[in-house]
Amino acid sequence: MREREAESEQRVTPLELFFDLVFVFAITQVTGYLADNLTWDGLLRGLFLLGVLWWAWAAYAWLTNTLNPEEGAVRIAVFGSMGAMLIVSLATPHAFEADGVVFGIAYLIVRALHLVLYAIAGRGDPELLGAVLRILPSALLGAVLLVVAGFLEGPVQLALWGVALAIDYLWLLVTGMRGWRVSPEHFVERHGLIVIIAIGESIVAIGVGAEGLPLDAARIAAALLGIVVAAALWWSYFDWAIYINQARLADATGEERAVLARDLYSYFHLPMVAGIVLFALGMKTTLGHPDEALDTISAVGMSGGLALYFAAHVASRLRIGGGWGHGRWIATIVLLALVPAAKLVPALVALALVATVCAALIAYEAMRYPYARSWIRSHRGAFTMAEASEVTGPGRQGPGAQPTATDPDPGPS
Q1: Tens of pLDDT, residues 70-82
Q2: Which of 55, 65, 273, 306 is 20 to 30 A removed from 363 (C-alpha atoms)?
Q3: Among 80, 187, 67, residue whose Cα is nearest residue 129
Q4: Three-class HEC string of the chain
Q5: For residue 397, pLDDT beyond 90
């Protein structure tokens, strides 16, 4: 009974969206940090920052999936978390320098308040409370290491950040997901909204990159190509993939559902968001200098970031037993192959190339699997994977077709 109550469906609340506004600012800060540190060392540090911020956001996504954040004193505690998260975001540009200690302490407060709120959610539910107690050492130890790192510099500081991230991300693999509760519809909606926020960052990058510069033909073309890529990123996530993942999550129960949610969303959505942030970096550079070749880090961001995004889609497909598919892994390889080319041609040409790949992928999926897409979208996650397997997948364009031994995969890509 407690598990059914904890996993009852609900919509994302206005307070959750309010909380996410702080994360929007944090993502913008990471993009700015990367743009100001166009080196391999800067790229690594920027990704470390994003990894820490993502894990904090993901922790609260799990929390509000279990606990109504708008009731009673919980609302005040969430506001407190937002305040601490805002300080984390403000300290992000200098988290490896002068503001390292401030960053670490504010982050520790964010994680501590999360644990307190989860303890409240676990009252009367011994299994959930036990799950919260199991993550207590990793949550506090990782945050404390970041505080210590704030007093250091150089390789030792970076090593502590790496250890802190490893503790957070590996702990759940070791301790398991017994006792965690997941409401599929709410969980999927919450992560879908954060993907939109990340895509929005690429739109912001267009504005920031063009700020104060002449709006000539090259920059107009770059802005329009950027919208093409952003639309392709949105399409690839929200056209049908989101509903397949939701159905697979709904099919699972208990610990299996929690493990699947951890993998598909807490783990695999990080490279999606990171890929979008890296693309935003490439867009920002391109708008500033459309006629010049991209530097190495911006080229990696422009093309490699998109490759990372689609690779995460492929990983998600494999995780739910859907096989490799066709379009997305090919697009991933092509985008990776374009990284060296992006350093040799004008930035506008590089952007046009990656936009062509993204648009071609969407066109391929739309034209090759029209019935499967239509069926998935019309049901919007309200189907079982057994039902989906009858109508989706390569070679199966209508209901009643049965999966074969060589093609058991759901989803049209």
Answers
A1: 777 788 888 999 9
A2: 273
A3: 67
A4: CHHHHHCCCCCCCHHHHHHHHHHHHHHHHHHHHHHHCCCHHHHHHHHHHHHHHHHHHHHHHHHHHHCCCCCHHHHHHHHHHHHHHHHHHHHHHHCCCCCHHHHHHHHHHHHHHHHHHHHHHCCCCHHHHHHHHHHHHHHHHHHHHHHHHCCCCHHHHHHHHHHHHHHHHHHHHHHCCCCCCCCHHHHHHHHHHHHHHHHHHHHHHHHHHHCCCCCCHHHHHHHHHHHHHHHHHHHHHHCCHHHHHHHHHHHCCHHHHHHHHHHHHHHCHHHHHHHHHHHHHHHHHHHHCCCCECCHHHHHHHHHHHHHHHHHHHHHHHHCCCCCCCHHHHHHHHHHHHHHHHCCCEHHHHHHHHHHHHHHHHHHHHHHCHHHHHHHHHHCCCCCHHHHHHHCCCCCCCCCCCCECCECCCCCC
A5: no
CA atoms lying within 13 Å on the CB side of residue 73: 5
| Look-up of token digits 């890929």 | 275
Encoding tokens for residue 13? 């609340």
A 10 A CB-CB count for 258 gives 23
Dump pLDDT digits (tens) for 318-356: 998 888 878 999 999 999 999 999 999 999 999 999 999
What is the pLDDT, as a whole number, of residue 413?
46
241 neighbors 374 (Cβ within 8 angstroms): no
Check: CB of residue 86 under 8 Å from CB of residue 25.
yes
Please, is 342 exposed, middle or buried when counting C-beta atoms within 10 Å of its C-beta (0-12, 13-18, 19+)? buried
Our measurement of the distance from residue 323's CA atom to the centroid of its chain's CA atoms, rounded to an integer in Å, reads 21
The alpha carbon of 93 is separated from its chain's Cα centroid by a whole number of angstroms, namely 20
Contact between 90 and 49 (Cβ < 8 Å): no
Intra-chain end-to-end CA distance of the chain, in Å: 38
Do 144 and 97 contact (CB within 8 A), yes or no?
A: no
What does the pLDDT look like over 249-306, one tens digit per residue?
Answer: 999 999 999 999 999 999 999 999 999 999 999 999 999 889 999 999 999 999 999 9
In single-letter form, the type of residue at position 138 comes to S
- CA–CA distance, 305 with 322 (Å, rounded to integer): 23
Say which residue, 180 or 401, is predicted with more confidence: 180
Phi, psi of 346 (to 5 degrees): -55, 150
> Mean of the pLDDT values across residues 5-16?
70
Average pLDDT over every residue of 230-244? 93
